Amino acid sequence: MESAAPSAVTVAIDGPSGTGKSSTSKAVAAKLGLRYLDTGAQYRAITWWMITNGIDTDDPQAIALAAGKPAIVSGTDPSAPTITVDGQDASGPIRTQEVTSKVSAVSAVPEVRALITDLQRSIAAEAAEAGGIVVEGRDIGTTVLPDADLKIFLTASAEARAARRSGELRGKEAADLAATKEALVKRDAADSGRKTSPLAKAGDAVEVDTTELTLDQVIECVVTLVEERRSK
Ligand SMILES: Nc1ncnc2c1ncn2[C@@H]1O[C@H](COP(=O)(O)OP(=O)(O)O)[C@@H](O)[C@H]1O
Ligand SMILES: Nc1ccn([C@H]2C[C@H](O)[C@@H](COP(=O)(O)OP(=O)(O)O)O2)c(=O)n1
């Protein structure tokens, strides 16, 4: 007897910066034939648009008024994810230090979250028709997709996360380890402390501490969890 195609699965992966969400989610999606959505890239894209259009990122009202203007489109192929703003490739500009330093303020504005959350839900619903998706961010398991089939919350010590991040920055915008750690802890605090859907572990999420794990071990662990979920 031929085995049936695996059922569609929606996976939510949340956690603070540098825990391995993007690398893990992309690899798991590629291995299992799922789509992939980086929700942080969407918040970065809207932040980049605000900066380039002269919107004061310290003014929540100005941000709320402008939030509906940019058209943000995410490509969900895990081997080549894309992000455009008004048709323009934004994958490079959204990774600058300037965007990183302002994204928490912009993403805390409720009007921004409402628009981006709607966009994320429609992408996930469309992907569910095509096998499923891994969606990574801060509030996916708690707010965006509370009915996800599997929820993972990645953690790691601030030291490990800063070391991973400063490894990425070396040679580009050289930041020392202490400064990287300080910026990262500050962003975590802002993301966890905001009123509207803060960074938080969902009650039914599986927590995976990646501090002492290699990336391959984390990927293997999540693949196993998805397969277990699918076989139920
Ligand atoms: N378990 C791990 N061990 C070592 N390095 C890792 C691990 N997971 C991720 N990394 C590296 O850490 C950096 C940040 O990972 P990333 O997936 O972007 O994290 P996040 O999306 O949670 O911010 C990347 O350079 C990635 O290769
Ligand atoms: N679901 C999400 C995803 C990201 N955000 C916000 C908060 C984060 O600090 C920024 C950037 O997220 P991103 O995942 O790109 O951050 P890092 O990869 O950890 O540097 O976006 C959010 O508020 N909700």
From TrEMBL:
<keyword id="KW-0963">Cytoplasm</keyword>
<dbReference type="InterPro" id="IPR003136">
    <property type="entry name" value="Cytidylate_kin"/>
</dbReference>
<dbReference type="InterPro" id="IPR027417">
    <property type="entry name" value="P-loop_NTPase"/>
</dbReference>
<feature type="domain" description="Cytidylate kinase">
    <location>
        <begin position="11"/>
        <end position="227"/>
    </location>
</feature>
<dbReference type="GO" id="GO:0016301">
    <property type="term" value="F:kinase activity"/>
</dbReference>
<protein>
    <recommendedName>
        <fullName>Cytidylate kinase</fullName>
        <ecNumber>2.7.4.25</ecNumber>
    </recommendedName>
</protein>
<keyword id="KW-0067">ATP-binding</keyword>
<comment type="similarity">
    <text>Belongs to the cytidylate kinase family. Type 1 subfamily.</text>
</comment>
<dbReference type="Pfam" id="PF02224">
    <property type="entry name" value="Cytidylate_kin"/>
</dbReference>
<feature type="binding site">
    <location>
        <begin position="15"/>
        <end position="23"/>
    </location>
    <ligand>
        <name>ATP</name>
    </ligand>
</feature>
<feature type="region of interest" description="Disordered">
    <location>
        <begin position="1"/>
        <end position="24"/>
    </location>
</feature>
<keyword id="KW-0808">Transferase</keyword>
<dbReference type="InterPro" id="IPR011994">
    <property type="entry name" value="Cytidylate_kinase_dom"/>
</dbReference>
<keyword id="KW-0547">Nucleotide-binding</keyword>
<keyword id="KW-0418">Kinase</keyword>
